[in-house]
């Protein structure tokens, strides 16, 4: 054991003699955040050759080493400059007649990053610094092997090569998909900076790398990606090579003219939960939402006709007013000063009318008796308050009497709601939209709520019958929940990868948020249930392009449930809990400052392309520790295709020159070609006739 240990010790030692030959400067100033190095007069000016390979030096964000007893401190160059200093000391040379003038000396600032240690014949970097160098210590340029060790990803599954690192002698940069996708990644950058190419590349390179590493007996990668593509740019990006490795499914709004390989996008209205319904039809919390929820619940429980279930309706009505009176009591409404008691009187007048109405509709029974008792009690309270100049004030006894009789009647009609309609209004049970609208209409009439509900009903009818929307949301019997999951997540017995590309470009803007929200939620809930049933995760990556439009920052003071907020909240939930169920997010956005902070802070890896806007830069700087932040100063000037990878999937923030993506593999997002059209190189014809006839037939054509 001793011999072995000694051997390691010897191997782990850093050869200081060898290092001395590589010295480029000496440490002049040290603080935990910054180390200043005075460069030697003969240190390389542009390209360093003393490490064996030509290395650019000195260069911002390049690396230097400062050997110490623990190994060598790795620093990242954050500033290079010239300072006038006293003339450097000359040995064995003194001329008392000369006056030393300030002499321009090159200096640089370095941010400490970690410690490079020698392991056998290799090196390994440890994050964090516990032992700092001292003034006068030499600084050296790392050689190729050391650079590789600095940027190397030590993760076990770092098998996907995404590019090279220009600041580390072009060593390959590998990522571990478990880390990259397991804890969400955000790809951020200005328009045209290469985000979509990186997203398409990460998917393609991952699948290609899987192919090289397949387990014995497995012949295809089982990777699963679902791309939500608002601009319709990904539809042809995976047509080459990938279909041999994974099934590529495409969905979009087809307007009936089916392209062979593309299926009609379907997000049927029965898939929406009650919150999604409330938000899209903008139901008010007072009168509209409860009825809407009640109708949905009935649909989920296959109650389609109100007459069959008049007792249900009565019970629900009683439940509603029971809750209402409890709230009134707790807020002191029936008492208080004028007009509180008067308003309360008005309320019980309405209740009484509805109850009287119900009584007339049901045959004699115990239930009916209870309802009549309640009715009498209400009438007793109303009559004395209907004279001219009445005293509205209520006594506690009176109000409690109403409450108790209400409770009795409610129990007589079958107790709690849950007993009769076990399925919640949110369960994705298929229903037919016509029956839903009819049921809601009947329910409205039963409840004398036409005045509140009429406009809402109209909105729902318009939405369901609008040709632009109905192709997506109609509820024809041909699609079931199971079929949907098979088509959008996958149906193979874990032997085939699947890429689902959902082109949202032709989805009308009125429903696009709901569509995205429902798709994301159903996928999330399906994976949640997958884990519950199988005790295993089904790793899936959900890609959201143009994320600032769907996962936007919202004002949490305002509790209006708009569809766009609904959508943000769905993604917030996925960002927070997705990892537990195998759902990873890959977001791409050009406006990080507009993204939901909750989602952004849950992203553990960032791939940052060029970012010019100050606010966006400030924002991303918050995600890295101070001493590593200097590399981000390069953000505004990054060329297309170069990006900074940082976070969970990268041992240290690193500048990556992304792999080249062939033209055919790139997402298709052409800039408009003004020049070639202007000069006639490309021809354009104009035929508004075709456009107007379609436009006027379809209603407003969505953008795309
Ligand atoms: N890895 C790459 N390989 C080859 N070309 C690339 C790569 N990355 C970017 N490009 C080039 O840069 C152009 C713009 O890239 P891309 O469309 O990905 O930008 P973007 O950030 O998604 O822009 P937008 O925000 O407008 O969608 C591409 O058309 C392509 O020519
Ligand atoms: Mg793009």
Topology:
Elements: H1 2-12, H2 16-20, E1 23-30, E2 35-39, E3 47-48, E4 55-56, E5 63-68, E6 71-85, E7 103-119, E8 122-127, E9 138-140, H3 144-151, E10 160-165, E11 171-175, H4 177-182, E12 185-188, H5 195-212, E13 224-229, E14 246-252, E15 262-264, H6 274-280, H7 288-300, H8 310-330, H9 340-361, H10 366-382, H11 396-412, H12 417-420, H13 433-446, H14 450-465, H15 467-473, H16 481-488, E16 497-503, H17 509-534, E17 540-544, H18 563-577, E18 583-589, H19 597-602, E19 605-608, H20 614-621, E20 642-647, E21 654-658, H21 674-678, H22 688-698
Parallel strand pairs: 12-18, 12-19, 13-16, 13-17, 14-15, 14-16, 17-18
Antiparallel strand pairs: 1-2, 1-9, 2-7, 3-4, 5-6, 6-7, 7-8, 10-11, 10-21, 19-20, 20-21
This protein binds adenosine-5'-triphosphate and magnesium ion (MG).
Residues 189, 191-197, 201, 590, 640-641, 658-661, 666-667, 669 line the site of adenosine-5'-triphosphate.
List keywords for this structure.
binds magnesium ion; 7-stranded antiparallel β-sheet; 704 residues; alpha/beta; single chain; 18% strand; 12-stranded mixed β-sheet; elongated; disordered C terminus; binds adenosine-5'-triphosphate
